[in-house]
Amino acid sequence: MSFHSNNWFKVVIVLVFLSTSLAAKAQSGNPKFNKALADSLGADDYGMKMYVLVLLKAGTVTIADKKKTDSIFSGHLQNIRRLANEGKLTVAGPLENNDKGYRGIFILNVKTISEAKVLLETDPAIKAKVLETELYQWYGSAALPMYLQFSEKVEKTTY
């Protein structure tokens, strides 16, 4: 074997080794990846999925009767808890007073706005038009619902 053919052989071996190494690295991706968990959460290859973001805003109806308003908002909070327990509501919370009339947000663990609308029909404050909604599809971490298992552990007072 001549000097040049021996060098050519070495170059081929190095190229095969590099391409095999790069292919293996590209396929392995994240060493912490847990396929079973990703699948159970509906994650795509980036660990993300679609949700529906709901902006709650002041509605067109104002109720002067405090007892009735309290009852409606008690039902609103009970509905939040129920949807969270069913795994349909991932995030909920009020917003500070603002000039746009936004009162709070929900992130619903559903893929479509039509699915979200069905869930929102169960909320007494939305039914009474004390709150109204704006809905947007939102692409976020599929792991977001996992925080719910910890939320009750940090709530000193429940509603």
Describe what is shown at a glance.
By secondary structure, this protein is α+β, with helices and mostly antiparallel strands. Helices cover 45% and strands 22% of the residues.
Structural overview:
- The chain has helices spanning 3-28, 35-41, 66-85, 113-120, 124-127, 148-154; strands spanning 48-58, 89-94, 102-108, 131-141.
- The chain is α+β, with helices and mostly antiparallel strands.
- The protein has two domains: 3-32; 41-154, Alpha-Beta Plaits (2-Layer Sandwich), CATH 3.30.70.1060.
- The chain has a four-stranded antiparallel beta sheet with strand order 2-3-1-4.
- The radius of gyration is 26 Å and the shape is elongated.
**What are the low-pLDDT stretches, counting only 5+ consecutive residues below 50?**
none
Which range does the strand content fall in?
15-25%
Q: Helix and strand succession?
A: HHEHEEHHEH
> How many domains is the backbone divided into?
2
Rg from Cα: 26 Å
How many angstroms does the end-to-end distance come to? Answer: 83 Å
**Shape by Cα distribution:** elongated
Round the mean pLDDT to the nearest integer and report it. Answer: 87
> CATH superfamily assignment of the largest domain?
Dimeric alpha+beta barrel
Signal peptide: 1-26
InterPro entries: Dimeric_a/b-barrel (IPR011008), YCII (IPR005545)
Protein name: YCII-related domain-containing protein
Keywords: Signal
What's the layout of helices and strands?
Layout lengths: L2 H26 L6 H7 L6 E11 L7 H20 L3 E6 L7 E7 L4 H8 L3 H4 L3 E11 L6 H7 L5
Antiparallel strand pairs: 1-3, 1-4, 2-3
